[in-house]
Design a protein that fits this description.
eight-stranded parallel sheet
């Protein structure tokens, strides 16, 4: 049975933005998106700008979220931000397990699974990132890496298959992030097919799978036409209102 999923495009601003630049960027984005058929659209700015972004987007079709989250509900965890705090700020999403967090902050597969469950428990949508490094891709270990990263997530979600619609997986080959390089469409589809099979086997048939890694307006239509690509997690192109809107329009073509 084919499950129809609403395509999703989320912009990850990473450590970019300012109070001065955020407003014109979002106003330009909303102008470009006006009167267009849209997928589900969101942006994830740095923590200091969540309140500003939320205020600017409150009465619009664009949602917002965070780039990471604590696995803890609260307590003596200096510098961390809980999912309930993000909910207080009106967030819809929290990205967990991004490769830069895994690399620079030593986040483990098990920690990412705990973060994802904390997000779910707070009523938000976790965007769970998986992907292989250049060395792992060269060693033909891509699928093994994906399986290892997904394993604790699937274990944590066991028995809560009804949460499938509230979970998003983003495949981001690390070697393609910000490099201008992308796998072939056949390569992207092969990995997404593998992820789809693992999710379906776990009963998470409604879970959307995004692709991320040098997605831009010029290649979005090709990538989003692939049968198991349900949208994109967008980095650099999310900081360009016109390019990001082109990507959103390409994703909207998946709408029935």
């Amino acid at each position: 049975m084919t499950v129809v999923k609403t395509p999703l495009v989320v912009g990850n601003w990473k450590m970019n933005g300012s109070f001065e630049r955020n407003q014109p960027l979002l106003e330009s984005l909303l102008s470009h998106l006006a009167q267009k058929r849209l997928p589900e659209v969101g942006v994830c700015p740095p923590f200091p700008y969540l309140a500003q972004v939320g205020a600017l987007l409150a009465e619009t079709p664009v949602r917002w979220g965070a780039q990471t989250v604590s696995e803890h509900r609260g307590g003596a965890y200096t510098g961390q931000v809980s999912a309930t705090m993000l909910k207080d700020l009106g967030c819809s999403y929290a990205i967990v397990g991004h490769s830069e967090r895994r690399q620079y902050c030593a986040e483990t597969d098990d920690a990412v699974a705990r973060q994802a469950m904390a997000v779910l428990d707070s009523g938000l949508v976790p965007i769970i990132c998986v992907g292989e490094s250049a060395a792992e891709e060269a060693a033909c270990q891509t699928l093994a890496v994906i399986d290892r990263q997904l394993a604790p997530v699937l274990l944590a979600l066991a028995g809560v298959a009804d949460e499938g619609a509230s979970v998003v997986v983003a495949y981001e080959p690390v070697w393609a992030i910000g490099t201008g390089k992308t796998p072939t469409p056949e390569g992207v589809q092969a990995v997404h097919t593998h992820i789809r099979a693992a999710l379906d086997a776990a009963g998470l048939v409604q879970t959307r799978i995004l692709y991320g890694g040098s997605v831009k307006g010029s290649n979005a239509e090709t990538l989003f036409a692939l049968p198991d690509v349900d949208g994109g997690l967008i980095g650099g192109a999310a900081l360009d209102a016109q390019d990001f809107s082109t990507i959103c329009t390409a994703a909207a073509n998946r709408l029935v």
